[in-house]
Amino acid sequence: MSYKVDFLLKTMSIPNDHRLYPVLCYMREHAFRNLKIEQVAAEFNISVRNLSRLLHDSGIRFNSFINRHRVNRAIELFSDGGKTMQQIAYETGFSTPNNFNRVFKQITGTSPSLYEKGVTDNKKSAIEQ
Fold first, then answer.
1. Residue 12 — φ and ψ, nearest 5°?
2. CA 77 to CA 88: how far, in whole Å?
3. CB-based contacts of 66: which residues, under 8 Å, 6+ apart?
4. Four-residue CA torsion sign, 55, 27, 7, 112
5. What is the pLDDT of residues 104-121, one digit of tens each?
6. What is the model's pTM?
7. Which DSSP string corresponds to the chain?
8. Contact 112, 87 (CB under 8 A)
9. Which residue pairs from 1-9 have beta carbons closer than 8 angstroms and sit at least 24 positions apart in sequence?
């Protein structure tokens, strides 16, 4: 299995509580904005405390969920090519490229530049064959 597919499968979250399904869908759809837990709680008319508890009981941390979704999208954009790392950082919802670099490395274990180099090298070798 490729690294990309393996990584994407590891980041899937399945909630223990059926009430979280629409919440997680909303979080996925709005992850590329400056999304705060307060906004999500207000959207579903529940308190931040109750939303945090529901997420926690399903083993989901709000910021981790958002960041993993953003990094998944960044991996897709790297594979598509044609965008700079800075463009990808902002497009995926990170406030700064430095924050993007830190979170990307924290989640994947490699820096975005090394990941991008690997994607580029794989495309070149596929073209040469």
1. -75, 135
2. 7
3. 27, 31, 35, 93
4. negative
5. 999 999 999 998 887 656
6. 0.79
7. --HHHHHHHHT----SSTTHHHHHHHHHHTTTS---HHHHHHHTT--HHHHHHHHHHTT--HHHHHHHHHHHHHHHHHHH--S-HHHHHHHTT-SSHHHHHHHHHHHHSS-HHHHHHHHHHHHHHHHH-
8. no
9. 4/75, 4/79, 7/72, 7/75, 7/108, 8/72, 8/75
Q: How far apart are CA 27 and CA 69, in angstroms?
A: 9
Model confidence at 82, pLDDT cuts 50, 70, 90, reads: confident
User: How is residue 7 written in tokens?
Assistant: 């990584």
3-state secondary structure of 58: coil
Please state, in angstroms and rounded to a whole number, the distance separating the CA atoms of residues 59 and 47: 18
Which of the given ranges, 9-13, 63-67, 123-127, has the highest pLDDT on average?
63-67
Q: Which residue has the higher pLDDT, 129 or 3?
A: 129
User: What is the DSSP secondary structure assignment for residue 78, as one 8-state letter?
Assistant: H
